[in-house]
């Protein structure tokens, strides 16, 4: 096959490789937005309570200021997570458009099974396979259940449950072993 002509399989595989972690990233940020929404409700209720008390007694003024700052921080975090979701969605759309719009010709004919070494074809050539994104401390691709480290500066980000000793998703924020040891 000519280098500039790609099958539907090649294009779809390329799109899948480019976007394989986007759903995980979006799920993570949606979860973080929900956590911030709950925190916002709790903090705003406490703020209302202390504002009423501050009207009667000036000693609650510091508490009001404290909860106003906390509310502002929660709101900023929520906006940051929503912005990340927006960026991921835009990048997903951009990668999809780039994959189908390039200066390539699309070969819509069915593949010739006799010329394909295996019946199930991935459509990934060797250079694409070598560039496949690696995750976790095991430096392998994404598979099975994976978890995202909640430390923004984490160098790896995504981990396989088995590699970090998890059987199920934790109910709270999760920090990877590397980030724990760095703190």
TrEMBL record:
Task: Give the UniProt subcellular location, in the record's own words.
Answer: Nucleus
Where it mainly occurs, coarsely classed, is nucleus
Q: Does the keyword Coiled coil apply?
A: yes
Q: Where is this site: Histone H3K4me3 binding?
A: 135, 146, 150, 158
Question: Can you cite a GO biological process for this protein?
Answer: chromatin organization
Signal peptide location: none
Write out the residues that bind Zn(2+) 2. Answer: 149, 154, 176, 179
- PHD-type domain: from which residue to which, for each copy? 133-182
- A single Gene Ontology CC term: nucleus
Which keywords has UniProt assigned to this entry? Chromatin regulator, Coiled coil, Metal-binding, Nucleus, Zinc, Zinc-finger
Source domain of life is Eukaryota
Binding residues for Zn(2+) 1, per the UniProt record?
136, 138, 160, 163
| Gene Ontology MF: a single term | zinc ion binding
Q: Which residues form a coiled coil?
A: 50-77
State the similarity comment: Belongs to the ING family.
Q: What is this protein called?
A: PHD-finger protein
């Amino acid at each position: 096959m000519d280098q500039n002509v790609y099958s539907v399989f090649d294009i779809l595989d390329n799109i899948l490789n480019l976007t394989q972690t986007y759903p995980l990233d979006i799920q993570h940020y949606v979860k973080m937005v929900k956590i911030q929404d709950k925190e916002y409700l709790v903090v705003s209720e406490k703020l209302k309570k202390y504002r009423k008390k501050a009207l009667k007694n000036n000693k609650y003024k510091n508490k009001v200021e404290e909860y106003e700052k906390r509310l502002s921080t929660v709101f900023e975090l929520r906006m940051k997570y929503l912005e990340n979701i927006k960026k991921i969605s835009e990048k997903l759309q951009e990668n999809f458009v780039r994959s189908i719009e390039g200066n390539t010709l699309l070969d819509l004919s069915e593949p010739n099974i006799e010329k394909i070494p295996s019946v199930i074809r991935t459509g990934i050539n060797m250079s694409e396979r070598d560039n496949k994104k690696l995750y976790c401390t095991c430096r392998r691709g994404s598979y099975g259940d994976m978890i995202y480290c909640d430390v923004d500066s984490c160098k790896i980000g995504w981990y396989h449950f088995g590699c970090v000793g998890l059987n199920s998703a934790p109910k709270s924020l999760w920090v990877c072993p590397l980030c724990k040891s760095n703190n």
